[in-house]
Amino acid sequence: MEQLLQQIEAIKAEIAATVATTADQVEQFRIKYLGTKGLVKEIMGEMKNVPNEQKKEFGQILNAFKMVAEEKMQQLQAALGDSDEQTAKFDFTLPGDPVAVGTRHPLNLVRNQMVSIFKRLGFAVAEGPEVEDDWHNFGAMNLPEDHPARDMQDTFYVQAATEENSAWLLRTHTSSVQARVMETQKPPIRVICPGRVYRNETISARAHCFFHQVEGLYIDENVSFADLKQTLYFFVQEMFGKEVKVRFRPSYFPFTEPSAEMDISCQICSGKGCNICKHTGWVEILGSGMVHPKVLENFDIDPEKYTGFAFGMGVERIAQLKYQVNDLRLYSQNDLRFLEQFKSV
Question: 182-206 burial, b if ≥16 CB within 10 A, otherwise e?
Answer without folding.
Answer: beeeebebbbbbbbebbbeeeeeee
